[in-house]
Amino acid sequence: xxxxxxxxxxxxLLGQVxxxxxxxRVRIVVSERVVGxxxxxALVLAMETLRQYSCLGFGIEHSFQQQDDTLRLKLLGVRGPxxxxxxxxxxxxxxxxxxxxxxxYALLIAYRPTTDEFTLALTDSSTALTAIHxxxxxxxxxxxxxxxxxxxxxxxxxxxxxLPVCDDVEDWLVRQSEIVHRPxxxxxxxxxxxxxxxxxxxxxxxxxxxxDRVLEVVRRCFAQVAERIREAVGVALTITTWTGDQITAWSxxxxxxxxxxxxxxxxxxxxCPGHR
Length: 276
Description:
Oligomer: single chain
Distance between the termini: 64 Å
Structural class: mainly beta
Order of helices and strands: EEEEEEEEEEEEEEHEEHEE
Shape: elongated
Low-confidence stretches: 1-9, 11-17
Radius of gyration: 23 Å
């Protein structure tokens, strides 16, 4: 049970944990995630309740144990947040990093007298869950591709408006000798963009690069692109690397301000070598 007390700021609630709440049905996914700037992606078991709570910050108390190729996750209950809690609906959540080699693992998830069972298949390039016996856990059984080492995703927002810039920058990237376009097979989910249906006006392409010096070339080119599109409207390009670094080029005007039409050939210039 969670008790709210005090007089918090507008839009916030003040939570005090009294006891653990019961857990209903939950969803679970095992995939790689960017967990910190400059750090390699981590394999993460993520869980959330189907029940929505009155503010953000609810968590699932648990214990985790690995014995050889068996993973045991014991759920204890839902704990409320301590201190300020943003007033918005959201699930209780759990996040557990997994340090596993490629192989097959049994995943046992227990809550009170019930234990659900899954198998987890790991390769160097993918993760996949298979439900063996499931009563209260809904497992995401789709294949999730893992982040390729030394890779980045180019995200182009508002494609209908920004198409000339998106095309130009993508063409420049693939002409670089140390950058290779790396599409994922459609049989799995892109780790950089696992749910394309949530952003229909976004285009995401993934590339591999040879070493970090390449990113400095990209960074200089993006600074030039940002200057070219600065007075346009609705152009936003973001590169996100496999270690969480970002390189951006965003326009800075709105339609109610003086602005230019979306330019073409934004990579033509000294900071973007190899422009055609």
